Each structure stands twice: as C-alpha cells, then as structure tokens.
Amino acid sequence: MSRKLALAAGQAARTASARVLLRGGVDEKTGEALMARVVAERVGWAADLVAGMVAGLLAERWNAGDVAVLAAGVDEAGRALPSNAWMALRRLGWDVTPEAIKVNDRIVRMAQEQAGRTLRGVRYRAEMVAGILATWPADPAERTAVEWDEVREAVPDGRCLPGSVIKARTRQIAAFCAERGRLPVDVFELEAAPRAARMLVLAAVDRQQATLERAEDDPARALLRVQLPTRPDPASYADWTWVAGPLTLPSTVPPDAVLHLPTLRPHGRKVHADLVFSHAVPKTERTGHTTALGVDWGLNTLLSAGAVHRHGDGAITALGAGAMFRAGGVMARQHRLRRHGEYLHAKTDTYTRLIGADEHHALAAKHAVVKAERQYVADRRSGLNDALAWSAARWAVDQAVAAGTSVIYVEDLRSLEAKGMGRTMNTRLSQAVRGQIVGNMRHLAAEVGIAVVTVPARNTSKHCPQCLLPLRHCKAPDRPTTSGWKWAYCPDPQCGWQGDRDHGAWRRIAARGLTHQANTTLDRATGQMAIGRIVDSLETSAVITPTAPAPAGGGDRSKTGPTPPRSPRPAPRRRGAPSTPGPQRPAGQRPEGHAHTDHRPPRAACRYQGVRTPVHTISSTTPTTRPDRPPHRPRGAALGAGFHLHAHATPPRWADPPVTNTQYDYGSLS
Asked: CB of 63 within 8 A of CB of 188?
C-alpha cells in the first residue's frame, strides 16, 4: 500500500490519529490463535525492552551539551541532521547496545526514536529556564513591570507566551532554591531525566518489523503484522515471531485515507493502537474571507458565537442574534471534584508524613486506598474536561458550517491571568480548558476547510460593536441602575445598541478579524494562524452596521372593544384518548385522569443535541457503598441526557432571516 497521498487543486493533506484496540491475533509461526491478554503480554515484553534502552540513553545524554548538539541540527562534518530522530542519533554516534538479550536493529530504532524525540522536546524548556534564570527577579512572588519585560525578552516567544507558564517555572525554581539554598544551573539540574513510556513507536521501523494493510473487501478493517517476543528475555532471534492482529477502524477514518504504522501502548490486558492516517481536505486560506464566525469566551456561558458578513462596500452586518454554549452544570461539577481532590491530596500528605519510611505501618492500607481514590477523582476531572472540550469545539464548528463561514475568529486569551477577582473566581478562570477547546476546534475545522484564527483580546467587551464607544454595564435590561457586568448598553442615543455583553464581544471579534485578515500570520511549524497586533486605522472600520428594522406584520392589531374575561386558572388538560372499556361500564367514556401538570419537555429532549457520541456521555449509574441500596441514577440519565444534562447549546438557526431590531438584542436563540 502506498503511503503517498494524491492531492488535487485546492486540497491539503491532513494527518490525524484514532485510538483502536488490538483484539487478539494469530501467531504465524505456529498458527495458534492468541487472546487479547496474550497479545498484550507480548507487546508489554517488547515495550519493556524498548523502555529499558530509552531510559539508559536518556540517563547518558541528559545534559546541556548533548541536547545543544542535537538541537543545532548539524553533525561534526557540518551536514544537516535527518528529520527522523533515530537517524539523527545514529549520525551523531549515539547508539545503545542491549545486554543479555537479543533484539534486532528495528527494536533499537524504536528506542532511539523515542529518546530522540524526548531530547529534542527538552530544548524549549531549557531555553525558557535559562531565560528566567538570567532575569531572576528580586521578589519571585511578584515581578515588576520592568522585570516582566526583561523575562519576556529573554525567553523564546515571550511576547505571546502566557504569564502563567512563566510563573509556574518561577515557582519550580523558587522551590529548588528554598531546598538547596541556591539557583539551579539549568533545567537538567532542575529536573531529572523523564521516565520512559512503555510503547512501541512502529513509525521508526520498516516492513521487516511491522506491516499494515487495509482489507480490500472491507475498508473499515485492517491487518497489522508485527514481530513480538515469545519470552520477556529473548536469547535469540528464534524467540521472535510474527503476530497478525485485525484492527477495526472507527468511522472517523475515511475509506480513502492512507494508513500509517501505529504506536502500540499496552494497558493492562488490552493493547491501544494510536493509528495515524492522512487524507485530503479542503485547503484553508489566510485571507479572502467575507463571512466569519466570532467566538467569545465566558465562564458559565462557555462560548458565545455568531456570524457576520462583509459586503463589497466594506460594511459588516451580523447574521442572526448569535448563540450560546452554556456549561454551568459541568463547571459546577468540576469545582466539586476539585475541592474533593484537594481534600484527598491533603489527606494523602498527612498519611505520608505519619507513615514515614515504615512500610508496615498501620495506616499503610488506608494510605493506599486514599491514593487510589485520589487518582480516580483526577481521572474523572480529566475525562470531564476532555468531554467538555470536544463538545464545545464541535458545537462551534457546527455553527460555522451552518452559517457557511470560511473562518472562525477566536479571542486569544493565552495571556489571561486569573487574579484580583476572588479566590473562587480566580480558580474557576484558571481551570478553564480554553487551550484544549481551541486545539480541538482547529482539528475539527480542518476537516471542512475552515480556518481558525486567534484575534487579540483588547476591548472586545468594553466597546460598542456599532460605534466603538465605551459601553456601560448593568445587571439586567430591566435593572439599569443596578451595578453588574452581564448586560451592556451604548450611551450614545444615536446608536442605542444594547445586548448581552458576550454577544457584543463576538461581534467585535468577528469584525476585527475580517478587517485585519491581511495581517494574519501562519506558523510553519504548527500550522496555526493568528493576528498578532491591532492596527488603529483598520480598527476604525471594524464596526457592525445595523440593519433596517423590518415592517410590522400581522395586520391592524388595535383594540376595538373590551378584552374578554379569562379564567385566572384554566381547567387542566385531559387525556386525548377514551378510557379502556371495563366489564361494568360501556365503552367511550370521557378521557379519565388529568394531564401532567409539568408542561416542560423532558430534560433530554430540550438540549438540542441530535447526536450523542460516547465521548460526550457520562455514566448513567453511580455505584454506592451500601449493598442494600440500589445504584444512584442521576436525573435525566434514563432519558439519555448524559453529559448534555449539564451542557446546554443553542441550535444553529442561521437560515432564519437576520435579526433586524439591533436596538434591543437579548442575544439568545433558546
């Protein structure tokens, strides 16, 4: 099978990965069918051999000199090093020789590839730590404005680097200084060599070690053949045999995609295969956009989005009133899990201090139980963050597809520092998954050829989207004198715009992106697009032009007489079908019983979520510690609400006529 992807005009190659399971296999030497746990055991033996060689190579080369030589990109003769890490290490003469075991050269390749990737990745951390050490502040807990400018000039990409990253490294260095009484020399003294992961990077080998072929009759199936050891310490090449395992490809892998060798990760009795594939997608463009989707961040209202269109004369109008993705329930659950995790961390630290070095302490068993529970809570938080990030990103991309836009402009909040707003608010802001959502948004938007561009977040919520004057904020439209931040209105009587603060922000973001699209830069290494700075001359034209109000319809509604009296309490609705005929009464009696007094639809029916994938769901039952009680079933789980019981998304309604009354815009489609 060819690994080259044929591209047509206007197409680009997109590389992605999918997680699949290796469900058993066949030993080609003996013809024996192997169960999944046997294959996992043999993959684990090979991963242990590779991890041992990686650990030895990292321990030997974990120093500033060797990392600088590898990062320089040239060998001793001045020739450029290959892009493959294992080839670069061999060019430099960094070999690894296994002892007391017999492995082929391809196993050594995988070890060198994994170690080379790790050593190349530490270069950025080394430069950052070196810049922070060179500009060490007088007070590490609070840098002055001049010290911030100095450290941003010293670290790589410091001007666009979030301040939280620099603060985290500063705290790490300060902890080292408090323990040793001096500053570290470099990152290699600050951090020990990382632990080698148990995995097989098959991308570094050729067909003599592993092959992958897609089935001709069924494009959703593939066959992976790989050489695995038959014992944990192979003594000869006879202890290595070919194992063929079928792979069931998920629906996210297109039938015409080119498959690449996966990375195998043994996990218990299973083997996870990170399958990499490439396929053709529409090419995204930096400029030439006329319709754009603006996305603004929030806290409980995680995303607010809407589309705008730029006409030939330069005027920009909004298409619709916008939409919201509210995740107040998910964020509240995250907050509860965080507090519970902090409690478990404190409890674990107390047990560790009491136990000390005594392995047979009476609290050792309780310590193990608390550590396991702490890890379980951490996994729940991580899974909830992943589900929220994918759900929000998919919603934003769906809004862009429904609006027919070619670009998504997202507010760039990488430099946001959560401080000065109270302990609870600061914690909630710092734990938002904005970066993960943007990454997922880029991944999903690339499938449909939509560009994702970050826009500077300067005065997006402060100025009016129609006249750029500073807005005034209040609690609600019917409480204009109550101080608040949610509702915004323009003080200019000629403009008169008012609406939700976040909906004014996405208008400003989308208009700013369309007017500044000529300044969009493309990072060649990562493929990310961004607008670096705001030009004042372009910002003056980044305004939303209000549309003309629609004529009132429905005919003459003036009163011609008194309003007829109505009962303040109407009779309850009856059932629409007659009661079942009984033996003592004739059929066709009036419908018996009252209709349900709750007129709201079921919780799962009002979430506007047409498709619920497994990544967006939460378990419908929670086990209890009391065996005499039934398992707890969350509200809405029986109806299939799952994750979306707590995440609310307004549906795309861009096909409707645009909202014409911009003077009083509530900014919600629900």
From this structure: yes
Tokens of 536: 């004042």
Domain range 291-331+392-539, CATH class: alpha beta
- In this predicted structure, the answer to whether residue 573 has a pLDDT above a threshold of 70 is no
Residue 554's pLDDT is: 54
Asked which of 49-53, 82-86, 490-494, 634-638 is least confident by mean pLDDT, the reply is 634-638
For residues 263 and 204, give the distance between their C-alpha atoms in angstroms, rounded to a whole number.
Answer: 10
Structural tokens at position 25: 């296999």
| H or E segment and range at residue 128 | helix 105-134
Which residues does residue 203 pair with via DSSP β-bridges, in sequence order? none
Question: What CA–CA distances, in Å, run from 543 to 203, 291, 407?
Answer: 50, 14, 18
* Domain boundaries for CATH 3.30.420 within the chain: 291-331+392-539
The answer on pLDDT for 666 being more than 60 is no
Dist. CA 466–CA 550, nearest whole Å? 19
Residue 605 binned pLDDT confidence (cut-offs 50, 70, 90) = very low
> In this structure, which amino acid lies at residue 533?
R
Query: What's the pLDDT tens digit per position in 144-194?
Result: 989 988 998 999 888 777 777 888 899 999 999 999 999 999 999 999 999
CA-wise closest residue to 456 among 525, 521, 392: 521
Phi, psi of 348 (to 5 degrees): -65, -40
Residue with tokens 């001359």: 537
Report phi then psi at 105, rounded to 5. Answer: -70, -25
**522 secondary structure, DSSP code:** E
CA distance 327 to 390: 13
CA angle (645 as vertex; 644, 648 as ends), nearest 5: 60
pLDDT per residue as tens digits for the range 338-375: 889 999 999 999 999 998 888 888 889 999 999 999 99
For residue 610, the model assigns a pLDDT of 42
Distance CA 444, CA 450 (A): 9
| 305, 294 contact by CB (below 8 A) | yes
CA distance 377 to 346: 14
pLDDT, tens only, 471-512: 888 888 888 788 877 888 888 888 888 888 888 899 999 999
Residue type, 177: C
Number of residues written out for the chain: 670
Q: For residues 247 and 290, give the distance between their C-alpha atoms in angstroms, rounded to a whole number.
A: 43
Q: Distance between CA 133 and CA 169 in Å, rounded?
A: 10
Instruction: List the beta bridge partners of residue 214.
Output: 222
* 3-class secondary structure, 304: strand
